[in-house]
Each structure stands twice: as C-alpha cells, then as structure tokens.
Amino acid sequence: MERTELFKKIKRVVVKIGTSSITDDDRISAAKIEGFARQISSIRKSGYEVVIVTSGAISAGAGILGMKRTNLAIPEKQALAAVGQAVLMNEYKSCFSLYGCSVGQVLLTEDDMRHRTRFLNARNTLNALINMDVIPVINENDTVAVNEIKIGDNDTLSAHVYSLVEADLLVLLSDIDGFYNDLNDPEPVRFIGKISDDIRSRAGGSGTKHGTGGMVTKVNAAEMIMRLGGMMVIADGGEESVLERVLRGEMTGTLFAGQSVKVNSRKKWISMRKGKGIVVIDDGAVNAITKNKKSLLAAGITHVNGRFVMVDIIDVVNSSDVPVARGIVNY
Ligand code: GLU
Description:
Helices cover 41% and strands 21% of the residues. By secondary structure, it is α/β, with parallel strands linked by helices. A hairpin with a 5-residue loop joins strand 13 and strand 14 (323-328). It binds glutamic acid.
C-alpha cells in the first residue's frame, strides 16, 4: 500500500528528537530546536496532535558545566541531566512560544510504564495536556532512573510513549536517514513490514550506514510498535521540513508498519512490557492458552526461570523455547 494511503488516518504523532538533531558541538542549538518548533507548530495547524520525546539533557548539562560526557559515573551523568533538563526545557519553551505554542514537561521512568495504574495516570495527564492544546515534551527521568529501573534510551522510551498516548505514528528523528541493508546502498530501505532475524543482525552488525548501537534500539522500538499493529518512520532530523514530508507520505526515511491487530488496551500494555521471568509449559497448556484463550494453570508448567512475584509480567515459552504468550502472574 502507498504511504499516502497508509497515513490518511493519522492524527496523533509522537516525534522523537535525538541528541544529534538538537546539538552543535555538544551544546544545545536553539536554532535547531526552533526549526523543529516551526515544523511542529505548522503540522499542528493542519490538524495533527503532537507529542515530543526529546533527548539532550545530559549533553546540555555537560555543555553548561564544560564537562565531557564520556567516562562519567552514573550519579555524575544523572547530575548532568538535572542541570541539562532545565536548560533543554527552557529552549523548547522559548522556541515554541515564537510560534504561539505552549509546552509541558513530562519525565517518565520504567516504573511508570510497568505499573498499570501509574501508566493510566500518565496517560490521563498526557491526554489532558493535549486537550489543553499544550505540547507534551517528554524525557526519561534520568536523575532518578538507575540501571534496574531505567528504560535506558529514548528510542525505547518513545515506543512506550506511542503506546501510552495511543498514537498513530512514531517518527524517530536523528542523524540517520533510515535503515540500510547494506553500507553501499545509495538509499535506505523504504518499507519494512516484518522484523526478520536478518534485519536484527544487520541493525547490530556493521551493515548499517551510521554507527551501530543507535540502529539496534531503533529496530527494537519498531518491533514493539509493530506488535501493536502500529507504524514508525526513521528519518533524518536535519532534512529540510522532514516532518511535513514524512506526514505527506513522501518517500523519505524508512517506514516500519505492522499488521493491524485487534486487542484491548490492557493486552497491548502487557505486550509492551519486559518479562521478569520465563515459564516453560507443556503442549496441553500451549493449546489451552493459545487456542482456547484460557489462563495458565500451575499443572501445565514444566520449568520456571527467573525471580518474579504476583503482578509481575512473565514470558511463556513452549518446550522448544519458542515464545507463545506473555502474561501477568496471579499467584
Ligand atoms: N535521556 C537522555 C538525555 O536526555 C537521552 C537518552 C537517549 O538519547 O537515548 O540525555
């Protein structure tokens, strides 16, 4: 299907802006943020609802304090985020006010995604902001998010935000203009309908055009979104009017689109969580939960890996270790 056709019903868009798209020599660039403010205020005028996920807090903090980001201990990075987040937000506020738009800061952690009530509370707040015509500007709450409770990168965070606000499209803007199958290809792949093992290994290997780590998290984010039947575009944040071009359905960047799925909001939420453990089940139980849509009973469990308690999310695999379900522990 043509992009223009696929994008016809898009109303709510999450735009993730990577550090590289809003910095110059490790300093926050007001000119670059203003460029996004111009584009975003213009697409809002044409009827889209926009939620921003921004990186750059740690870099901004490092710039202000004249420090390098490398070789820092975690508390030091968190301290830089504390300094930088305020600077970052201030730039967003000033730049958007030039176009008559208000912004509101929302800082999230893994905990806010994991606990269903916190997730729903965050959803209500974000919807309220959107209804008040305020653009939410989201980042991870880096100052408190230590390893165990960290989402860790803003590609993954933006996939969670996509599910949180029930968006129609996620646009990841960075210095990468899409997903490349091969280093020598002149253009990125334009459409990906399924994340194959090949794509996964190319994202992690040296086959992509611009670095590696960055593509792994982007492909993971795409996978999370496709599981929800959603769509994501990776595009170059430095390209002229990139957001307008993407939304018009022009052939820029790489589009990832999942098959539409009809599951309720709670199941979608479960599908986005990371399992705290793995439960291996026998064939009878596989049948019961996948075909007959029953709950899993203890009798069908042959093996348990990991530590988890009631209300944790776990992955369920068959005797050959193939994932068959994900669920919440009841007892
Ligand atoms: N939250 C981090 C920051 O604002 C960015 C994480 C990322 O870029 O993935 O500096």
